[in-house]
Specification:
single chain; 231 residues; alpha/beta; six-stranded mixed sheet; 42% helix; extended
């Protein structure tokens, strides 16, 4: 396996765009041994994910060509996606794509590559010497029990990562961000509830003006009989 001689994170500060976001994405841009690597962590399937990944690749690949440089200087650009939803109809948790000729399977260029790791397809049992699966299991862990199960394997780098996680989550800054995130999610849910109720009230008004029976209005809008009578 090729060793890492150069490793640079090109976006070391990654604040969320706004606290109303669902915090289901993480994007880390790196330069590894002269290659551009974009690590995408996606929790929710918002649709069109393959197209989005290809857009990310095109953006990274094209932006690396400086004025006056030849196309041959374009670096190998790889997108790594760790996703917590099924994407492909296969049993394998890892899929790798490159541009190939459809009949002869000749590689057009190794400067384009897409790795997909589907967390929902990871095996239940992971060996302590399988570092890839250990790291993916760490991404998949949702409870402290799952983290402790990985820590009990006594793999030094995994223990260090888990300890770092606990240190960060125990900080006052992190707790304040979590409080603001929870408040933003609550405010969003409240706004949706209010908008939905106002819409149902408007529907009820229209149905009532059309002479629809109260029982039918209650059934269609979810409002109470008293709410409808008071309109």
């Amino acid at each position: 396996m090729e060793g890492i001689g150069q490793f640079v994170i090109r976006n070391p500060e990654m604040p969320p765009e706004n606290l109303g976001d669902k915090f289901c994405r993480l994007d880390i841009n790196m330069t590894v041994n002269g290659q551009r690597v974009d690590l995408e962590v996606q929790v929710c399937n918002e649709g069109d994910y393959p197209e989005r990944v290809m857009y990310y690749w095109a953006r990274e690949f094209s932006s690396s060509l400086l004025t006056g440089q030849g196309y041959s200087t374009l670096p190998r650009t790889i997108i790594i996606s760790i996703i917590d939803f099924p994407l492909f109809e296969c049993g394998e948790y890892h899929s790798f794509f490159q541009p190939l000729e459809v009949t002869r399977h000749t590689l057009l260029s190794d400067k384009m590559g897409f790795h997909f790791f589907e967390l929902s397809k990871l095996p239940d049992d992971v060996r302590d010497d399988d570092m890839l699966l250990l790291w993916l299991s760490l991404f998949k862990a949702e409870t402290e029990e799952e983290l402790e199960k990985i820590r009990e394997m006594e793999v030094p780098v995994m223990s260090q990562a888990i300890n770092a996680y606990y240190t960060i989550t125990a900080s006052s800054e992190f707790r304040e961000k979590e409080r603001l995130r929870a408040k933003a999610r609550h405010d969003e849910a409240q706004a949706l509830y209010t908008a939905r109720k106002e819409r149902n009230i408007e529907i009820a008004r229209n149905m009532k003006s059309d002479g629809e029976p109260i029982e039918k209005i209650v059934r269609y809008t979810g409002l109470t009989k008293e709410d409808v009578e008071n309109l």
